[in-house]
Known about the structure:
Elements: H1 2-6, H2 8-27, H3 34-66, H4 75-78, H5 82-105, H6 107-113, H7 144-148, H8 153-167, H9 188-195, H10 212-217, H11 242-259, H12 263-271
Amino acid sequence: MRLLFNHPWILAIFVAAGLAEYFWRRARGRGYDLGAAAGSFGVALGQAVLRPLNFAATAVVLFAVQGFALWQIPGATWHWDWRWWAAGFVAVELAYYGFHRASHQVRWMWATHAVHHSAHQLVLPSAIRLGWPEFFSLGWLFFVPLVLAGFPPEMIGTLLALSLIYQYPLHTEAIGRLGPLEWVLNTPSHHRAHHSCEADYLDCNFGGVLIVFDRLFGTFRAEPGGRGLRYGLAKPMESTNPVHIALHEWGALLREMRARPGLLPKLQVALGRP
């Protein structure tokens, strides 16, 4: 969420929304785990420190790849032509779907993404509970084809940042269902199902702004009516220590890889399912 830290007014809106949600939950007797929220802010602080390094490393790779693109959108064209932005939006959404789905199904990527799912309450601060070694997780590989197809890294980065800002208000129980919008857009209802640790809702609703690719590829699950969902990891993680939250799954993965003799068994652990 690079733009979050670059623009104070965005941060102010997010903080105000978080406070409003806190009072809403308290008024309705839902409870609010302040320790978990503090852990989320601690993880976000680590993100703020490390994100420039992750961003810079990813930018170096994508701009290097751009040199191998057989064709590029002319700079003077894409800056102001809404049609290129619309095409880029759809392309980034598809790449994000693939990245997000792989982050749940490949353990090497899950080691970073598990941080985001570790909170047992779905409240707005959980949106900023993001893993630290993003570049090391290799998620940027899913956006390399877009650069090779001619989309500028600047456009990809801007659309991804806007997508992450859009996703912030999805992490709440305060917003109900949104009617016909839910056929096309990712909504709080869809994202609640995504964050559930219940067996019927694991690995679903991977979209960023759109939900259409989940519907197209069979990974869509509707939120159940008449009851709430359980959130968090399948194996609950109760710590509120930001360092433990951010690195616990990496520690478990690396310990298991170290215990396997030979390169192939180690790769089977790293590339297998969580």
